[in-house]
Structure formats: C-alpha cells, structure tokens
Amino acid sequence: MSYPSLQYNDLKLVAKLGIGSQNKTYKVLLKLTIEEFVLKKEQYFSDEDKERVNRDIEQMKKLASRFTVRLITAFEHDEDMCIITQFYSKGDLRKFIGEIQELSEEERVMKVWAIVAQVIRSVDYLHSNNVIHRNIKPENIFLMEDGSVRLGDFKCSNSLVGDQESIVGTKVYFAPESWIKKITDFSSDIFPIGIIAYELLTGHNPFEAETEHGTVEKIKKGQYSQIPSFVPREMNEMIVSMLNSDSSKRPTTKQLLKIGMINMYLTMQEEKEKIQFDNSQEAEIAKRKTVEAQQEILRLKAQLASQQQQQQQYPAQTQQYTTAPQQYSVAPIQYPAQQQQFNQVQQPISYPPIASVETVFQVGPIPHNPINSSVFEDIRFNGETFTHTDKNKNNSTILFDPPITNGFAKIEVLNIRGLFQVGIVDDSVRCERNQLPLIQGWEKMAYYAN
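== non-specific serine/threonine protein kinase ==
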C-alpha cells in the first residue's frame, strides 16, 4: 500500500537502525495505523547529494518487485530526503551471518543454499533489467518475516558496462577488475555473492586480512582461504567459480539458477510465495479499509466534539406537550458506571396518566471495555480496532461492559472484514474461544446478522 501524501509529522521514531557517512536509518511507526516502516534520512543539500539520492529513488521505482526492498514514499524534510521503505523485520544479512554460526554444519549448509539461491534470483532480476548493482554486501541484503530476501540500496547501481570514474561502495566486496582495470560489468555482481556465501558458512570474509588494504590486495591476487571440508562438492564448486579472478570465467546468474540445489530451493520458495501472495492480496484490501475506517473514526469524533460544544453553549430546553387529562413521563436515559452489577430480570415499568411528555436526550458515546476472556488468544486489538490473528478459523465473540439497562442505544460498527453479527445479549452471557452467543439460547440475545 502506498502513502503518497505521507509527511514527517505522520511518523513516530521508534529505534535507530544505523548511521552511515551520508545517512541515518530509523525504525518508525505510522501514527494512524501503527504500521512499521524504515525511514532513511539522506543528506540532500549539494547537487552531488541530490544526484546520488535521486538515482536511488528512481532505481527503486524502476526495479519495484518482490526481489527488492519496496519504496513506500519519499519527501524532503529540512535538508534531508526522507525515504520510507517497507520494514525488514529480521534485519540485514550481516546480523544473520552471526546468528547462523550457532547452527550445526549441516543446518548451516541448508540455510546457505536457501539464502544464496534467493540472492542470485534477485540479482538476476536486476541484470535482466540491464542494471548492475555495484554494491552487493550483507548490509544491503534484507530478510523479511516470511524468510524471503530483498535487495536494497541502489545509489551505486547503473546500467553502464565499462569504465567507472571512481570506486563506490564497500571495498572488501569489490571484484578484482574494479581495482585492476577500473571496470565493472554484470560479472562484478557475481564476485561478492561468492564472498557472502563463504561468510555465511564460516562467519568471515575469505580474503580477510589484518587491514582493509591487505584484504584488497588479496582480492587483486585471488588469494582466498580454503573452503571448509564440510561444504558439499556442488556448493564448493559454485563458490570457487564465483570467486574466479577472471571475470569472463565467472558464471552468469542464468547459469547459477540452473544448479540443481539452487533450482530446488527456489522451487520451494516459489511455492511458498505463491500462497503468501494470495493471502497478501486479501490483506492489502483489509489494510486499505482499515486506514479508511480510522479516518472515518477521526471524522466522527470531530463531529461529536462539535455537537457537544454546541450543546454546552445552547443547553437543550425541556419540552412539554399538553394533550389530555392523562399523563405519562419518559425517564431520562442514564448510563451506569463501568462494572456495575444489574439484576437479570427488570421490574415492569408503570406509566402514570398522560398529561405531558418530558424528553431529555443525552448525546455521546457510552464508556465501554471488552470483557476479558480466552477469545483474546485469537484476537489482537488496538484502541477500537479488533483484528483476528488468522492463525485459525475460530469464531470470536467480543462482549463489552457496561450493560444497557434502559433507554435507547445506537451501536455503530465499521466493518472492515469478516464481521458476522452485532447485537445485545443478556448480562449473564459469556463466550469463550470459538463460541457464539446462541449456544446459551435465542431468548438471551437480539442481533443483526451481517
């Protein structure tokens, strides 16, 4: 879902995710919907800054797909360009490289196949669009909650194959030709994938030296550490081919995608994503309706506040009507305090002879709270919004206090998705997980079925 009119004041900063030489990255919440996003504040002062940042934004728009971090919106704030992207809940691959070292060697190999396969697929998408990333490293590869991989940071990317005016990006992931010949091509993106595969397996760079300069020198000479013996032959051969100092001998993304284990893990991932896509379409519609509902709630609250202000300025006058020798009166509506107990059987109401009618109207919402029960194992709520976790198909009946004992009450509900019934039940009724009120008898409820 996009938010083209989003501005800085609509966001709440939650945590700092990182600081670079030219940017700061934060986790933020959209105040209206409590959705999580990433905010990257890029320097946007000089012409050079603007060219660099604009290229990143344009590439994100051009390459928008399930293989790249999704751009939500971008806007200027003070001297920065604020770039809002989807939140990558499991962080970047740098964090994952540390975590995966705790696994057994066998489990680690399986994880590496799964991650590297998706990285290759993402880079293949870029290359198919005639784009060289030029800065592939763990910090620019992001893991989503569903286990999928996204590529990000396209400030260094371009569609040019050939000479490069300057070295941009992280030096210890550059291919040898970037240093020796000052050129980059599509194969220059393959070299860092080989380094990343090795890092996932061992926790360190295969060209690692005591200094950055020493690492660069080893890259130039093609001197990397031996691949561990626990690595399967097929994976070993793949890494060796990607780390070849001769760029013409490195495999293309198309060739890598044909490797048996890469193909197998991608087939599994594609099936998983197909299911998730079907669910996400429905979720996207629900999310859009949630935003619309929140906006409608704000409008109604503003309208109610205006009405209450008018009532304070112009108090309602009691109206009397004389019609006949007999009279009856309608008692004022009273709203009981929260958690007050009431008799289940109401006394009959007697009406005196009709003479006049007194009407007193009280306008405003009745304070109400959901009654605690096991239902909330399947429901999460934020303020007035209740959402099923969708982890099962359980019916969820939410009851509210206080009870209504007399008068007239208007129940207003904004149905986003999946509402079945709205109504009033006897105060004795209680519902647990996957229970509907009707199990306690039709005589104890009055309802409207959606």
